[in-house]
Specification:
Elements lengths: L1 H56 L3 H11 L3 H7 L2
Length: 83
């Protein structure tokens, strides 16, 4: 009887630990999804900016990617290319 009670208590502790682990995993997954969504939105925003800049430069869609990469550079990045 005592052994069965101890086994039951142990099983309950294990279930509680599993429940806590599951809750933590769900929170971490939600956090990762939110970060992924933000990153996806940022990539879309940058792609829109690149398209707008390419149109302003008068570059066709085929050459836009290569030319825009050369023309559209932040000051810090430009310093790396032109010391």
């Amino acid at each position: 009887m005592r052994q069965a009670s101890a086994h039951r208590a142990y099983a309950e502790r294990v279930r509680e630990m599993a429940r806590v682990e599951l809750e933590l995993a769900e929170k971490e997954f939600a956090r990762a999804r939110m970060i992924w969504e933000r990153a996806r939105e940022e990539v879309e925003r940058v792609e829109r900016m690149k398209e707008i800049a390419a149109r302003r430069l008068g570059i066709g869609p085929a050459a836009a990617s290569a030319a825009a990469a050369l023309e559209i550079t932040c000051h810090a990045c430009m310093q790396r290319f032109h010391p």
